[in-house]
Amino acid sequence: xxxxxxxxxxxxxxxxxxxxxxxxxxxxxxxxxxxxxxxxxxxxxxxxxxxxxxxxxxxxxxxxxxxxxxxxxxxxxxxxxxxxxxxxxxxxxxxxxxxxxxxxxxxxxxxxxxxxxxxxxxxxxxxxxxxxxxxxxxxxxxxxxxxxxxxxxxxxxxxxxxxxxxxxxxxxxxxxxxxxxxxxxxxxxxxxxxxxxxxxxxxxxxxxxxxxxxxxxxxxxxxxx
Length: 225
Known about the structure:
Layout: H1 34-44, E1 52-57, E2 66-76, E3 79-95, E4 100-112, H2 114-117, H3 122-136, E5 141-153, E6 165-176, H4 186-201
Antiparallel strand pairs: 1-2, 2-3, 3-4, 4-6, 5-6
Helix pairs in contact: 3-4
């Protein structure tokens, strides 16, 4: 699986990488509270569309006392059309910037046709895909923040035969509203995140949806896995 390797921000100014918790204890060795364990169990048990391959990955250590992460790739045969990472953070004491005890942080990437990347409305459209994916599943959340970045690569010299490549990158974080026993519906948030990945990759919606939603065309030459 092609993993998103960029640094993540928690929406409160923190960044970090490293080996994280697997749901049993925090990075300091403290036993994880029941709410966090339940949230992680829900992530592990989520039912997702088959084109998205999801697996656990080491979580950042310094963003919160407890963290759990997954990486995902949208797969078409032997090709990865988009990839990303989703991190669940938990601070039992709460966090002023989050306005809650849980936070979801994500990085999503996909390659684009250069002409699509030049569309001046692309950043706004990509952000609307994230908020729209959450809204479609009826999820309540707060304090959203993030960036949409597009980059182009042009090749010269010994690499001059390669066509120009463009990439879109979505970095975002939001606070999932907590339900019973203080546990957010992390399975539904993961499913909505996978909907975003699929949309960025150019796949059709998994079910009936808003006909006005625009999806990216499949990139010209997806990278072989």
